Amino acid sequence: MAENSELQLKNIRITGVSGENIACVDDTGSIVLLQSDLVQSGDVAFKRGALKFFLKNTLSGAYTFSYDSSMTSTVKSDAEWAITEYADLYIGRNQGNEPLYFEDATSFFKFEDSKFTVKNTGMNLTRGTIISSRDAQVDVQSTSTQTGLVFGDGTPEGDMSLVLHASSTARFTGGHVTYNMSRNNGIRSKSTTAQMIRSAGSIFYLPADLDLADLTIDVSPYSALIVEPGKKLTYSNARVVNDQDEFYLTTTWYNFYTMLLAGNGVINLSNGTLPLYLLVQGVGNRLEGVGNIGGLITLANSDAELLCDLSGSLLKSISMNGGIVSLNQNLKLGNGVVFAGGGTVNMNTFDIATGNTDAAWSNDIWWNGTDAVISLNSNVSLASTWTFNGTCAVKGKGHTLRLGSLGSIAVAPNSQLILQDLYIENIAGHNICCLDDTSSIILKNVHWGQHPPAGQSHMQDYSYSFTTGSLQFYNTVTIDGAAIFAYETSQTSTIARDSSLVLDHGITFSYAPDGNCQLLELENDNSRFVLNGASLYITSTGMQLTKGIFEITEDSDVIIDYIDIEDEYGVTNRSYGELILGDGITSENDCTGMIQLGVSLRMRQGIFSYKNLSFASWRMGNQLSMLTFYPGAMLTLYSSLPLGQGRVLISKHAHIDDRGGNDIIGVVDIVEGLA
Prior knowledge:
Structural class: mainly beta
Number of strands: 72
Radius of gyration: 42 Å
Number of helices: 0
Shape: rod-shaped
Distance between the termini: 128 Å
Low-confidence stretches: none
Mean pLDDT: 94
Largest sheet: 13 strands, parallel
Helix content: under 10%
């Protein structure tokens, strides 16, 4: 095209375009395309002049069209320039001039199975509409945001649109891309099947707010995203793919590693691991889908709520800050992951499984649940208070729950907690408790340790008091430690069917409720209350056992206290409490006494009252099995006592009281020297 001339190509298809066979001789010339197609047969260099596009026009052919002119070409209103069929448009500023100008939003710049390469001089697109149809590749050869590709100029007049059609792909392979529009919806998708790919080496810079909605974003972990402080990147039903990870987002980008769920935010994982940190504000926020959360989750404050409906794991801890986490399905915690910072966990009817490495919990958690379970897959150290409300369980799977000096477990009113298959250490004071008498604790196959961890010295008194609520013992529950377990509640506790409560070496079980001797119930004939080298201390209230078995498996002591009562004449009478077996009414309520081979039950003080009716309700293993009465102790017979192979060893200063023609059937040794 000659100087100062203009050529119109109208309704024409030109093939064989290559080199400079369509060109202007200088910058005063221009070529106007009206409904025309240019088909490349080789690389093209357009070095001078300008192009003007009216109506619909295409550039096709698997070659490069290098726009090297310093003049600005124009896409007119209601016009389109489409780059198709694997053509590569190589374009950028020349001598500071922008290469393309769009008259308004009806000026379309379309890429369909083609490539858009921005030179290292960069370019700025304003006003028009860019369309990605099928596959579009964008390669920006920049060294900074100033030499990159910029959408918009920060003003409403300069706003443009990038539209991705359904099933299309906009692939950003490298370089700097800046979104600088006054509105946040400048990138629009027709469907979540539309995909934006940010490859390694691509850098997106947002000096303005951006909302990505109904769009799939495939992000390399090596692609950078920079959001100016105070600006928001939000996702609305956006599907994000990161290598093998896939998730849907309705969130806000908070910083380069944190997503913000600011109320009614949603993250839906389809596969893999979300690597970002999460900040949660307000209510209605949800984690859902299948996959893992790889970053730390932080609830901003006590007003923050998060619903976890996630089939996967949390791989980092949750910082609660007084907020609320609710479950809508079972939740797995990764190794070392805890709920930190204090708050409320609504487990509802679901389970939480801890990680496989030991974890330390140091903040108070209020657990709400209905038949909800915490499953321990490792040992747990607790330096704070766990309070359980509703019906909850901690299932230890044979692991250890270690209570620190500030660690405790509490059961809320009208609530029940099951502790199962668990070793518990450092029990002392009231660090496992019911908050009122409507609370209960069920122990199933639990080793209850009133002592420090193995290898540590006793630096404190490990005595413990159970003062409110009730206990139930299932399977085998063992209490041990050189300390006192004081039973002081006014409620009845139960040793369940075919279950055993074992008081082990060193422990003193103090039965000390106020005024009721029948608060330890044995549910059936095979419920066992076992002394295995322990001491049983009973206040003057006394203790009556019916049903079940009172079994002595190692030498053990019974000490029963007394009160001094002054009568109307000023005479002080001493009244001892009693350990009573049976009720003397029916053999169905006999509590079978069982002293194993070579073992002695030593009555150090107080009254042992025998009311069993059946001869089969007292068993002694052999001639070395002994029932021993020290000075100050008394045997009261409401029924005959058949010793079998065993024997009674009684101090000369002890007493036997027969209440109606009853006998000790067997060997009785009266001795002088017991003390």
